[in-house]
Amino acid sequence: MIADPTLLLPLAVLWPMLLAGLALLPGWGSRMVLLLPLGPLPALAAALVASRDVPVALPGVLLDSGLELGATGALFLGGAATLWFWAGVYAAFYMRRDERPAGFALFWNLVLAGNLGVFIAADIVSFYVFFALVSLLAYPLVIHDRQPASMRAGTVYLVLAVCGEVAILVGLMLASFGAGGAIGIEAVRAGLALPSAHPAAVPLLIAGFGIKAGLMPLHVWLPVAHPAAPVPASAVLSGAIVKAGIFGLVAFLPLGMPAAVAGNVLMILGFSGLFLAALMGLAQAGAKAVLAYSTVSQMGLVMGVLGFALAGGSAPAAVLPAVALFALHHGLAKGALFLGVGLAPVCGRAWRWGLLGALAVLGSSLAGMQLLAGALVKSALKDQAGAFGATLIGLSALTTALAMARCLAVLPRAKSRCRPPLLMALPFLALSGAALWLPWLLYARITGETPLAADLRSLIFEAWPLGLAALMIAGAVAVGLKAPSLPEGDALGPVQRRVAALSAAARAAERAGSRSLRRSRPKPQTVIGEDLDRIEDVFREGAAAAILVLAIAGAVVAASLI
Amino acid sequence: MMTFAPLLLVLLPVVAALVSFALPERLSAWRNGANIGVAFVKLLVVAYLLVQAQAGVVFEWRYEFLPGYDFVLRLDPLALLFVTLSVFLWLLTTIYAIAYFDRGPNLPRFFGFFNLCVLAATGVAMSGTAITFFLFYELLTLATWPLVAHRGDDKSLRAGQIYLTYTLAGSVAFLAGILWLQSLVGAIEFSAPADLGAIPPLTLTLIFILCIGGLGVKAAIIPFHGWLPEAMAAPAPVSALLHAVAVVKAGAFGIVRVIYDVYGIGTVAELGLGVPLAALASATILYGSVRALMQSDLKKRLAYSTVSQVSYIVLGASLVGPFAVIGGLVHLVHQGIMKITLFMCAGALANRMGIKAIAELDGAGRLMPVTMAAFSVGALGMIGMPPVAGFISKWYLGVGALQSDAAWAVAVLAGSSLLNAAYFLPLLYRAWLLPPPPGRPAIAELATTRDRMLILPAVVTAVVSLGAGIFASLPFSPLGWATLVGLGYLR
């Protein structure tokens, strides 16, 4: 159909944008919800057949931007497109009677375009544009149901997303300047590796992408925002959209050039998140919140490894395939888990046991259960994490397994003897299958090693954290132990209370302002406001005086000249 | 024949002004037709000139009106950048003003001065000497006053008075500056910067302060910005124009001329004047944003936002790095199209639903979706959200600041972005996500009284803002043209 497969790259981002545009036509909203699965198809085709490392120039667009599909990007793109496709099928059914179909279809497709674009951008400007799309326009998806809790979650999300955007923008400016004004991603990354690079560039980029990927302690938005969205949107948020942050790190961290401070900080934060987030997840009451914490934990694992690689100067060619493979597995598995949680209320009796079984398999895979895909991708990652990191990753099987068990324990109950509709069950099964099978399929091609190189004895030996987890779970079930409970977003509570007090004050000031507007001059209410108004008054009087002096001086000069 | 093209651009508005003044109100259709027709013809002339200028032709028209004082109209690339912006936005604002006023009082006077105003703005852009520039600059001051005070109530008259006090004082300072310089080096031609080497640095510095201080009044640099928020008493089409092209931009444009064509980048750098001016511009950027955050009136918030945004242009001009120069110049255009969108939308909201305070915006998106969509594009652009044009300005300014070894300016830009988000996003939140208060007209009711001409101009500028960002690297995009201009100065 298309002669040149590289043309699939522009199509991959333009096609969802076109679908988004159609959703704006009056009355087309619910029709476009039905067509949600179509959005990621060109991207899926591109991930499969588009030529690698062949730039597609887009002259005239942005700053003469371009698209290019690298090997790492192809894995991210393929995984994201698969997840978006099946989540789209699920959404087409799940959202079919939604009150606001047009808004959902519009922002779903725009976020999709941004999400896919991040993986194929060849220059930092188009990268930033796509990143802003995926980051900021996910806000309407988070608040889609307009419940008070979702609105609060959305506000937290938006504030952190905007801060992240600014950090990334400044980081990219510094990086581009350091690379002599170049905007190609490869050139910019090379520039960041130079000793002359601005010392703030890498930390800013880490902070900005870290916000998106849930780097502790910047993760607080994630456990409140992901569960707030409708189920299919949660799936793509946690499965695909956080990967935009990981991909940002993958694309820009100057791997291969030891950067001790930034690398160690990233490693420490990442590995702390790996354990702390899983433990916090244990204390959650909602299954989606547990899964969101598990996302923070797993992304912490990836970022910890990236930090280690950055600090030690590992070559990108060694690290990135393992990271991409891990991201692929996590994205598909986490997407499937979210869809599975959404299935729980419609799975009665026997169906529920089936669902629990499938979720348990997925959870064990995430935890790194031997012979499942998760163990495979983790073993690739362990090779790049050093001895200490590998031990930590091995230990994390314990916390992850416990978190997954918690998720199963708090799974919502079905009402009665209902059976899941096919269009909701099929995406779940397909994604689960892909998560468990694709890493096996791709492992050899990507890492160049045969899977299962380790002998059986070490496999069993390495399984002790999981065994311990199984014992603890069994014990907890036997004793009827109740987990402690923490609010979603942990540290967010105190911060939010203060922010709420501040914003209440601001609203009061605004109300007072609009009241006094009806009188002739607005009277400011807050202390800061009064100070600034006083400054403004000084300016007003001072300006008159200054202008007068200027004018008199001018008149004297003019008179003496003419 | 086309050597008269500059003259044609100045004379056409005179025709429209005379027609507007002369025709009685019952022939308003003719007046409207003449206004739109003339604006359209000007746009065609400008399109022709752009193509010619791309090929390197520079039009010039010269007339000696006093011995030693030439009246020069010259269309260099910088002039064309501003002329194109003003002519394009003028056409849209004319259409908007006709729909906005419909059958109000004193319209012949309004459209008459409106045309004198466009004449002055075009003249400011095309001036080839400092004296010519000053003549048009003064004409602009005087022609705008009846527009600011158009409503004739106490508030408008007060605003008009404040406006005149500030701008006339500024003009005197500016005039003193150019006369002083002229007495030292002879006539100041923009096409060929005079050799300032023989003049003592202190004198040069004083002249620079006089000129920039005088022009800074119109460009609303602190502490001379006080008139701008007061001038909000003017009707929406005037505010739109004031903020986007006419008055504020004339000041910023003048500052660009002084830095590049009177002093030259090298001299400004030698005298060490760039950094203080950049610091002042940065202070204005942040101060304007903080003040904007505190306003409860929609138009006032937009006004303080202008105070902040126009200083981006001054910041770019005073940093003198290659990208900063381009960023400042391109923001001249980008700020214009984005801000005019916001003001035209604000005017439409006030006109159709009586929305003036920010608190009244609730649910506006549901009732007037097209208007609010255009407004949203403008607001996101102001924040610097890609792919709207404002992002391109910010990118160039940021990288430019680094090139000029002014990393602090990047921090200013970042802080300003956050502040912009803090005062624009709540507006969008209210408009799109909160329910409309009781007592608002129903959608069906609004639909019966809809006037497409009130919305269309804002939609056009919103689309152009998006296009200018998405297709920034096309040769005739604002960025393409600003690069052409900027490279000319950097050579």
Automatic annotation (TrEMBL), chain A:
Gene Ontology BP annotations: ATP synthesis coupled electron transport
Membrane topology, record value: Multi-pass membrane protein
GO cellular component terms listed in the entry, alphabetical order: plasma membrane
Superkingdom in the source lineage: Bacteria
Any Pfam family: Proton_antipo_M
GO molecular function: NADH dehydrogenase (ubiquinone) activity; oxidoreductase activity
Domain NADH:quinone oxidoreductase/Mrp antiporter transmembrane: 121-343
Official protein name in the record: NADH/ubiquinone/plastoquinone (Complex I)
Organism listed in the record: Neoroseomonas eburnea
From TrEMBL, chain B:
Stretches assigned to the NADH:quinone oxidoreductase/Mrp antiporter transmembrane domain: 130-416
Source organism (scientific name): Roseomonas alba
Domain of life: Bacteria
UniProt entry keywords in alphabetical sequence: Cell membrane, Membrane, Transmembrane, Transmembrane helix
This protein's name: Monovalent cation/H+ antiporter subunit D family protein
Primary localization class, coarse: membrane
Lyase in keyword set: no
Positions of transmembrane segments: 38-59, 79-101, 113-140, 161-182, 202-228, 240-260, 272-290, 310-330, 367-386, 406-432, 453-474
Membrane topology of this protein: Multi-pass membrane protein
Pfam families recorded: Proton_antipo_M
Sequence similarity: Belongs to the CPA3 antiporters (TC 2.A.63) subunit D family.
Localization in the cell: Cell membrane; Membrane
InterPro entries from the UniProt entry: CPA3_Na-H_Antiporter_D, ND/Mrp_TM
